[in-house]
Design brief:
This is Replication restart DNA helicase PriA. It comes from Dyadobacter jiangsuensis. This protein is α+β, with helices and mostly antiparallel strands. Among the domains are: about 70 residues, no CATH class; about 55 residues, no CATH class. About 15% of the residues lie in helices and about 30% in strands. The chain contains 3 helices and 13 strands. The strands form 5 sheets. Strands 2-3-4-5 form a 4-stranded antiparallel beta sheet, with no helix packed on it. A 3-stranded antiparallel beta sheet has the order 7-6-10, with no helix packed on it.
Length: about 200
């Protein structure tokens, strides 16, 4: 019989339970910083805080709008497609000359919000686009976690020899883990990678 020490008894949480805080590389000092996500849907007042260099930034400062016009010209009937990005405020009116008949007209564009993100080649957080602090290659795959709590729960799951389903109502975070993390042949490599990340 499997001992309780080898049985996974983690909480029946979904992956969204770990999406309120992301540990990332600070864009100033490259140490561990935190992105606190206030709103799981849409663009809220999310914040970046680094306790090493005291850098902080709010997501609303990176909010931009793309003003778009997609309609037929009121004079010649030809299609007009215009997209003007990187506006700090919503554009109420836009004067634009039809590229076909060259008649100018004032339009009320559609304003699509988005955030400027830091560019990174590795896995990033969904708010600022900064590299996740907890990520490491395991063989040909990438093991990552949103935050320390997330990483510890992955470790608890990988360590367990007996993994029972926690609930029938939802698909939990551990059930959504990639197969390379769940595979017994990768257990040692995954656990070593987790320990290295925890010591960073």
């Amino acid at each position: 019989m499997e001992s309780e020490a080898n049985r996974y008894v983690g909480p029946p949480t979904t992956r969204y339970a770990y999406a309120k805080e992301f540990w990332v590389e600070c864009p100033k000092c490259v140490q561990a910083a935190r992105v606190i996500k206030k709103d799981l849907v849409g663009i809220g007042d999310d914040k970046l805080v680094c306790h090493h260099c005291n850098y902080s930034e709010t997501a609303d400062k990176r909010l931009r709008y793309t003003a778009t016009i997609s309609r037929a010209c009121g004079h010649c009937g030809e299609s007009i497609e215009v997209s003007i990005p990187n506006n700090r405020e919503k554009v109420a009116e836009l004067k634009y000359s039809c590229p076909h008949c060259h008649v100018p007209e004032v339009y009320k564009p559609n304003n699509v919000p988005y955030r400027l993100k830091y560019s990174a080649e590795r896995l990033t957080d969904p708010v600022f686009g900064l590299p996740l602090w907890f990520q490491e290659n395991v063989k040909s795959d990438t093991l990552w976690a949103s935050n320390r709590e997330h990483l510890l729960e992955i470790r608890n799951y990988v360590t367990a020899r007996l993994r029972e389903r926690q609930t029938m109502r939802i698909t939990t975070m551990v059930e959504k883990l990639p197969q390379f993390i769940k595979a017994a042949k990768n257990r040692e490599a995954v656990l070593k990678a987790i320990e290295r990340m925890l010591k960073r």
